[in-house]
Amino acid sequence: MKLLETRMAPNPRRVRIFLAEKGIEVPTEELDLMKGELKSDSFTKLNKLQKVPVLLLDDGTPICETIAICRYFEELHPEPALFGKGALGKATVEMWQRRMELGLMAAVTSAFRHLHPAMANHEVPQVAAWGEANKPRALDMLRILDEQLASNRYVAGDTYSVADITALVTMDFMKPARVQRPEGLVNVERWYKEVAARPSAKA
């Protein structure tokens, strides 16, 4: 078993943090996005979308998509539960995970891919107007997150979850994406300091 990744990319980092929280060690293989290694025939056979991460099982089976990989390990190692416990707990984590992924991370990623010069050969065509349009979308979701964190220690409640991992990685990715974090989000700042200080955040 090994994890195919590009270390600088945000999605592989989500998996690394998830594994660190579980105390699981998985060998990794680095693929160079800028050298076009994700577009090679061998990698495309594993993931036709040409994206990382990909978890390659011992029998050669590839598992693609960040959350699918995390769910695989959650099933194998249910503790600590990072997708919630019980019907309500799992639904709440799923709700906030999707909000962080679709409402925050997707917006920041679009800003990065459509505005950053280094992505010109990877996002064809780059549409600058779409990149700019996604910046306020990300900030709107951060304000919603700030309201949620006013009465919750973590994104989905009182327990650290995969939703926190997605939000943390996205917050850090805002810097290379050149999306300025708004001031005055005191609850987000409190939460960020706590989750960024967890040992897993260095994964």
Description:
There is one protein chain. Helix 1 (10-22) runs parallel beside helix 3, helix 1 packs antiparallel against helix 6 (162-177) and helix 4 packs antiparallel against helix 5. Helices cover 54% and strands 6% of the residues. The chain starts with a strand and ends in a 7-residue tail after the last helix. The chain is of the alpha+beta class and 203 residues long. The protein is globular, with a radius of gyration of 17 Å. It has a four-stranded mixed sheet with strand order 2-1-3-4, with helices on one face. The chain has helices spanning 10-22, 41-46, 66-76, 86-115, 128-149, 162-177, 186-196; strands at residues 2-5, 28-30, 54-56, 62-64. It has two domains: 2-76, Glutaredoxin (3-Layer(aba) Sandwich), CATH 3.40.30.10; 86-202, Glutathione S-transferase Yfyf (Class Pi), Chain A, domain 2 (Up-down Bundle), CATH 1.20.1050.10.
Annotate the secondary structure layout.
Elements: E1 2-5, H1 10-22, E2 28-30, H2 41-46, E3 54-56, E4 62-64, H3 66-76, H4 86-115, H5 128-149, H6 162-177, H7 186-196
Parallel strand pairs: 1-2
Antiparallel strand pairs: 1-3, 3-4
Biggest sheet descriptor: 4 strands, mixed
Strand segment count: 4
Order of helices and strands: EHEHEEHHHHH
Structural category is alpha+beta
Q: Strand fraction band?
A: 5-15%
Question: How far is the first residue's CA from the last residue's CA?
Answer: 18 Å
Level-1 CATH class name of the largest domain: Mainly Alpha
Provide the low-confidence segments as ranges: none
- The shape, in one word, is globular
